[in-house]
Each structure stands twice: as structure tokens, then as C-alpha cells.
Amino acid sequence: MIDDYRSLAVFVAIADTGSLSAAGRRLKLSTSVISHHLSRLEERQGVTLFFRSTRSMSLTPEGQIALDPARRMVTAGEEALDAINAGNDEPVGSLRVAMPAFGEQGRLHAALWEFARLYPMVAISLHCSDTPADLVKGGFDLAVRLGTLRSSSLKSRRIADFKRWLVASPDYLAARTPIRSPDDLAKQDFISVTQIPSVITLEQGGGAIQFEPSNVRIEVTTVTSAKAAVLAGLGIWHLPLGEIEHDLAQGRLVRVLPDWSLPDLGIYAVWPDIGPQKALTRRLIDHFVSQKSDLML
In this structure, are 202 and 133 located in the same domain? Predict the structure, then answer.
């Protein structure tokens, strides 16, 4: 009976993530163990639960019938464990978290490490990337994302805000004509980050204009690389204020068009909508919210 329950939990993880390997990452089991549990479940029940191909797995009619009851079983087990730990001053468990790769020495990561210090019985697996991770397939409990959220099946909570400044290096600005108005930006070189929209909104006195750079000299895939390119004098870009405070103070970067501002953006905690939220996930979100003033970038 216990083996059946375990195999059903594996079955749900495969259905949610779409592959054996992704289910293994979620459950912290090897792909071979995941495959073994699925094969044993299908053998014992005398059915095939998934259509298999080299690229994907999809539910058979029998799998579709079994999924909702199996998911309710897994959900009930998670709720029971949450109830057991709800009153504990010392939470126990594990969290798989995704965060931006940039700012690894910054405030967001510091808040996560403070949570780990406060709760030594909680194991944390952190995935860092500036490209948004697939939370379901990756088996993540929570992700922290910056900017404007696109509509999706994820649930979210805004935990803080961050400011951005348009900046360049002194060497770059010294070699160019002065930038006195947004119109002067048309002649400038810009850095771009692949997954961030290229349109820049500038605000002043209640009004706003939008500008899309035409001279993108350097395109990169991470914010860290974009900052390095700006520091190297290769162009202009907007960076989170929390990332550049020291560079501004030491004169390595200069604010461009200081009389104009960029809209504040949000810092969001997001999590998959595939069942009740884990108590540990809620606790981590509450921790981030309690640190809101320190998280402001």
C-alpha cells in the first residue's frame, strides 16, 4: 500500500512537470528511480498511464481518470505535514527557490540567506538565472521575479519595488555630444538584455515619453553582463539602483538625464498554482515582506 502511495506521488509529479527527469528534480530522485516507480505502478494496475515519445509524455485516458484523485492524495499529505508543522517554532523541510542571477551579493539574496540562518532545519536549493525558470517542470516552490509580470497560471505577491536609472560611464559620455534631452538619445549607443523589452519609458512632471533605441551595439543575456558593458564604456542602459549605488558613488557610472525618471517596477514572489501553498513557502514570502524596506533596489 505504501509503495502504491509513493508511486502515485511520482505519477502526479510526472503529469505536472511533463517528463521523468523534471519529476526527478522536483522529488530529488534519479530519473531511473522515477521510471521504476511509474513502471511498477502501471504493472500492478495493469494499465498504461502515459503515452511516451522521445520528446514528451502525455496522459492516456486511464491516466487522465487517475490524475485528479492522485493529486488529491498528494495534496492531503502535504496539508497533513503542514498542519503538523504549523505550530512549530522551528520549521522543518525543504524549499526549491529560483532568483535572478544578478545581485548575488545584494539585498534579495541577503534576505534569503537571513531566512536560512533563522531556520537551520530548512534546506534550501537555489537556482539563479536571469531567464525565468519553468516553476512546474523545475519543481520550484517559489521564484522571485522583477519587472512587470506577464499573465500566467502562476500566483504572485508583490513583495517590494525597485528603481532604475539610465546610466553610462564617464569615458563614454566624454566622447559623445552632451545628452540634454531625450531627443539626444537617438544618437547614442545602447546595451540591451535579450529578455527585457527594449522600449524605455521616461517620466517627468506627470508626463511620459517612450523611446526605443535604434543603435544597440551590445546585446547580452544577463543583467550582470549588461552592467559590465556599460562600465566598459560601450553604451547606455538602465540598471537597478541597488546594483549601481557603489559605482555611482565612486564615479564609475554617471546618471543620464537626471531630470527624467523611469517607472518603479515590482519585485514579486511567484509560485505555481498546482495545489495548496506549502507552509514553508508562505513563511518565506512573509519573511521577504517583513524585509520590504531593505529589499527596495
Answer: no
